[in-house]
Structure formats: structure tokens, C-alpha cells
Specification:
flat, mainly alpha
Length: 101
């Protein structure tokens, strides 16, 4: 059984390495296409949003409290406030919404 676990870990390590290696090998020169460059510019933001938005909404027992926390934190972030203030305001909004619901 343990031999298979090590085999699975080795295969996953190779797959992960290959996924990161192929773009470096295939794209050796600078990307000059403006549309493709702008697409690549927004990939980290889209990925972060896709990972955090469902977690922020569905981590609480009620969808409304998750939405309240997300709205409070999002509004402060849009206005340029710091991460600590946004997180604290989002947590406070979730707590208040949970007490109200």
C-alpha cells in the first residue's frame, strides 16, 4: 500500500512540474499580442476571485450574512482601505447579520 502512495505522489509531482515547465519551454520569446497580454494580466485576479468568492459566501450558515460581510469588505476595499480594516469590517458585518438572522 505505501509503495502505491509514493507512486501517486511521484506522478502528481511530475504532472505539476510539467504544467509549469511547458509554458516556459513553448513561450521563449516575448508575447507581443496585446489581447493575449491583457488576458494574461487578468488571470491572477480572476483566479483569486474564483477561489475566494464562493468561500466568502458559503462559509456562514446563512447566505445573507456571507453576502453582508462580502459587501462590507468589498466596499471598503473599493474605497482603498487596508486589508486589516476590510477583514475586520467584513467579520463584523457577518457577526451582526448572524445575530440579526
Amino acid at each position: 500500500m505505501t509503495e502505491r502512495v509514493w507512486l501517486y505522489i511521484a506522478v502528481m509531482a511530475l504532472v505539476t512540474y510539467a504544467i509549469r515547465l511547458f509554458p516556459l519551454v513553448l513561450l521563449r520569446r516575448e508575447i507581443r499580442n496585446v489581447r493575449f497580454r491583457s488576458f494574461l494580466y487578468y488571470v491572477p485576479y480572476a483566479t483569486l476571485t474564483a477561489m475566494t468568492l464562493p468561500a466568502a459566501l458559503f462559509v456562514t450558515p446563512h447566505l445573507a450574512s456571507g453576502a453582508a460581510g462580502l459587501a462590507a469588505a468589498g466596499l471598503l476595499a473599493y474605497r482603498g482601505r487596508g486589508l486589516l480594516l476590510c477583514a475586520a469590517a467584513g467579520s463584523l458585518a457577518v457577526w451582526l447579520a448572524e445575530r440579526w438572522l
